[in-house]
Amino acid sequence: IASLRSQIEAGASAVQLFDTWAGALNPRTYLQLVLPHSRRILAALAEYGVPRIHFGTDTGPILHLMAAAGPEVVGVDWRTPLDEARRVLGPEAVLQGNLNPAICLEAPEIVDAAVADVLARNGDHLGHVFNLGHGVLPETDPGVLGRVVELVRSL
User: Fold this and answer.
1) DSSP string of 76-141?
2) What pTM, to 2 d.p., does this model score?
């Protein structure tokens, strides 16, 4: 809580509760051992009025529980297609993600097709923040990321 509050107080216009290992848990364990703490953290930040993002990797089976923690945005890694996340969370859900970061190491036509696929799976939903599905790999050429940004803007 202190770390996320300090980010907001330093000027962050959004914060992310990042739980890389959440997807390693089954829904029952997540519900019992993690969800209460995620709720508490996100609730403690509500007074600031900035969007709160809740992200984990490999979280398809627990996306509904992560959304129940109270964020405005649910992050989706590349393992769960956006159309599947929308089916689970509903059409009004705001999602962030979900390009596989390893795709950025591929040939331009593969990158372009993957970006187009993420956008197509989002459909006409306005609530989508295009992003990689879990960070940038160290060997990624920054020029590829620029290409991805331009492609997203053009599509």
Assistant:
1) E-TTS-HHHHHHHH-TT--EEEEE-GGGGGS-HHHHHHHHHHHHHHHTT-S-EEEEESS---TT--
2) 0.93
